[in-house]
Amino acid sequence: MTDEITILVPVKRVADPNVPIGVFPDGTGVDLTNVRMAMNPFDEIAVEEAVRLREGGTAGQVIAVSIGGPKCVDTLRSALAIGADRAIHITTDDDLEPLAVASVLTVLTNELAADLVLMGKQAVDGDNGQTGAMLAAKLGWPQATFASNIEASDGILTVTREVDQGLEIIQVDLPCVVTADLRLNTPRFAAISAILKAKKAPIETRAAGDLGLQLSPRLRTISVAEPSQDRANINVANVDELLDSLRQDQGLLK
Amino acid sequence: MTVLVIAEHDNVDVADSTLRAITAAGAFGGDVTVLIAGHDCGNAANAAARISGVNKVLCADGPSLGSFLAEPLAELVAAMVADHLQSRTETFEAIVCAANTSGKNLLPRIAGLMDIAMVSDVIAIKSADTFVRPIYAGNAEATVECMEPIKLVSVRPTVFDPAPGDSNPADIESIDAPPYWNQTRLVQAAEQDTGRPDLSSAKIVLSGGRGMQSAENFVILDRVAAKLGAAVGGTRAAVDAGFLPNEVQVGQTGKVVAPDLYMAFGISGAIQHLAGIKDSKVIVAINTDEAAPIMAAADYCLVADAAEVLTELDAALGDKNP
Question: Per the CB < 8 Å rule, is B108 touching A137?
Answer without folding.
Answer: yes
